[in-house]
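agent> fetching stored inputs for the ribulose-5-phosphate docking request
agent> found them:
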Amino acid sequence: MDRQDQKALVGEAAAIQYVKNGMTVGLGTGSTAFYVIKKMGEMIKAGMELKGVATSKATEKLASEYGIQLIDINEVEELDIAIDGADEIDANFFAIKGGGGALLREKIIASAAKTFIVVADGSKKVQSLGQFPLPVEVVPFGYKQTERAIEKLGCKTEIRMKHEEIYLTDNGNYIVDCTFPSIENPSQLHQSLNNIVGVVENGLFINMVDVLISVNKQNEISVAIAKK
Ligand code: 5RP
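agent> prediction call returned; pasting tokens
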């Protein structure tokens, strides 16, 4: 089974197992979250009543295409669940997110959810985080200063580009992609990054994931619940 098939399998399984009638669901961003949204669209067609809160403008568009009623995050006190992809996830359920540039809204929505579910193909499960460059969202003003301060934490940095221009997040900010030789202490790094002036948020999701839906070596669905 290739990665695309695994994404479809875990995305659909998450929707089938966790999305229930009447729920307000945080809708993730990316190619795995796509399958959750698609399945939710089918569930709505079959008669379920669901509402969604999108983690990006791309997801807003997709959800509308699949007939999911969108509401503003400010209209709800909390979300029943949020389901999203990840770039890496380790055995402690710590994750790196933001490969698609949506980390800030993803984190706000994951924090607002009673249960935060990550859907991940097998390639996303890692022994230790850091092979995937860690995305950090920074404000455009003084971004080179901010980038230098981030580098002092021991990484190589790159400002994310798109079509030869600096990539802009949905919040009008820049992304600094940070390659560390390894991330020994994700919690400490999370703190250190967010203490830098100019950093809005970083892509480390620490103690946030409640459920990981992935596949095992036999290509079967595996559901793991975080101990908290
Ligand atoms: C977007 C994200 C995505 O969840 C992450 O990049 C995984 O994407 P995909 O499911 O396409 O592999 O964090 O900001």
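agent> quick read of the result: The longest strand covers residues 113-119.
agent> awaiting further instructions
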